[in-house]
């Protein structure tokens, strides 16, 4: 579980909502050197500026869980930083 925050448009976030099936690279720091494709488990669209607690699915499940589980926060990349998620333990 993670508390996801999508940055608002004025802070450089997306200009539109994310929807079921959307995913993007997730990183453990604000570097694009290493990332994992993550998909938030959305039940409905999520708008820029919104916060929500939800689960994530990662394509490289074990590798992502090991790397991101060792940190308290991870970041969402879509050509720019569009959000961050606090890991809920």
Oligomerization status of the protein chains: single chain
Strand content of the residues, in percent? 35-45%
CATH architecture: Beta Barrel
The CATH topology: Elongation Factor Tu (Ef-tu), domain 3
CATH superfamily: Translation factors
Distance between the termini: 7 Å
Which range best describes the helical content: under 10%, 10-25%, 25-40%, 40-55%, 55-70% or over 70%?
10-25%
Number of helices: 1
Give the overall shape, derived from the CA principal axes: globular
Run of helices and strands: EEEEEHEE
Low-pLDDT stretches are: none
Overall mean pLDDT stands at 93
Adjacency order of strands in the biggest sheet? 4-1-7-6-2-3-5
The secondary structure category is: mainly beta
Give the domain tally: 1
Main beta sheet strand tally, sense and closure:
7 strands, antiparallel
* Rg, Cα atoms, Å: 12 Å
CATH uppermost class: Mainly Beta
Q: What's the β-strand tally?
A: 7
């Amino acid at each position: 579980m993670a508390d996801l925050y999508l940055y608002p448009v004025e802070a450089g976030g997306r200009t539109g909502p994310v929807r079921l099936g959307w995913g993007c690279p997730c990183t453990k720091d604000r570097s694009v050197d290493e990332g994992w494709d993550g998909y938030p488990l959305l039940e409905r669209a999520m708008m820029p500026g919104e916060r929500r607690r939800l689960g994530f699915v990662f394509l490289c499940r074990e590798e992502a869980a090991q790397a991101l589980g060792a940190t308290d926060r991870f970041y969402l990349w879509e050509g720019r930083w569009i959000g961050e998620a606090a890991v809920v333990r």
